[in-house]
Design brief:
Layout: H1 13-26, H2 31-42, H3 57-66, H4 75-93, H5 103-110
Helix pairs in contact: 1-4, 2-3, 3-4
Length: 121
Amino acid sequence: MAEDPITTDPATEPESDALWDTFHRVVNMTSPELATWLRTSAAEENSEEVPDLAGPPVGRHVLAILQKRRTDLTDEDITCMREVIDEVNERLSTAPSDAAQRPEWRHALMSLGHDPLREGT
């Protein structure tokens, strides 16, 4: 059963706009890039996940949010957006000094929709 989109209260609309903008600044991968990454990261030598089920649940949720209009967000989407922003910021603030040589660090961020090697991040 699909969740109902959240109803926008005019009093909280600026907060909603700020969250939307921050999420799309933190999640710097496009939906096609993220979808490709999730399929690639989930592929194993002898098997491959169904494309719609590839990658971790949070990555799939980020992908679903990227494909929505702001007015179609659910409360669950809002919670996910906040958690992803916090998680990406935490991982970036505690980046290892040799992060460029640590693909697992980058890949964990990419599964959240953030590529730390992308220009402007």
